[in-house]
Amino acid sequence: MFYRLLQCTWGLPQTLAGAFVFILNRECKHYSYKGSIVTEWKSKSSLSLGMFLFVSDDPFFYYQGKRKNYSEKAFSKMLMVHEYGHTIQSLIFGPLYLIAVGLPSILWSFLPVFVRKRDAEKISYFSAYPERWANHLGERITGDNSIGEPI
């Protein structure tokens, strides 16, 4: 309850954005995870906005090599733990989260110059600070494994 209260006050900007995306995806499967609201949405990417987690319905899309090591359910949970780590960052940064974490994360994920750099230099997506830190926080708080390199 305290988690949700903080997300609805200190993390209000991203929680409002998350509520809007949640409403747009109301037909998808939803459930709760450690106080957050999880949506399995029809996107190839996963996203966290305040207390709302949006986990890909195709978790292996960007990680085909992981398919041989994990079931879809296990890998989806690892993505969820990573996204949950972003919700903890939301609690730390509050109204500055979208600038301090959200924007760098989105740019690192989708900006063509970074996509090419990661491909050419074989750099993990999870090497950038918001992603590596989200893995660490998600694992530390939940006790579950996340996606990415070992911490």
Question: How does this model look, in words?
Answer:
The protein is an alpha+beta fold and 151 residues long. Helices cover 54% and strands 13% of the residues. It has a 4-stranded mixed beta sheet with strand order 1-2-4-3. The longest helix has 22 residues, at 72-93. The protein is globular, with a radius of gyration of 15 Å.
| Residues in helix, % | 40-55%
What is the structural class? alpha+beta
Using only CA atoms, what is the Rg?
15 Å
Distance between the termini: 29 Å
Strand content: 5-15%
User: Looking at the structure, what is the overall shape?
Assistant: globular
Mean pLDDT over the residues = 94
Strands of the widest sheet, in order across it, are 1-2-4-3
Number of DSSP-assigned strands: 4
Return residue spans where pLDDT drops below 50 for at least 5 consecutive residues: none
**SSE string:** HHEEEEHHHH
In short:
54% of the residues lie in helices and 13% in strands.
Keywords:
151 residues; four-stranded mixed sheet; alpha+beta; 6 helices; globular
Layout: helices, strands, pairs:
Layout: H1 2-9, H2 12-24, E1 29-33, E2 36-41, E3 47-49, E4 52-56, H3 72-93, H4 97-110, H5 112-121, H6 129-142
Parallel strand pairs: 2-4
Antiparallel strand pairs: 1-2, 3-4
Helix pairs in contact: 1-2, 3-4, 3-6
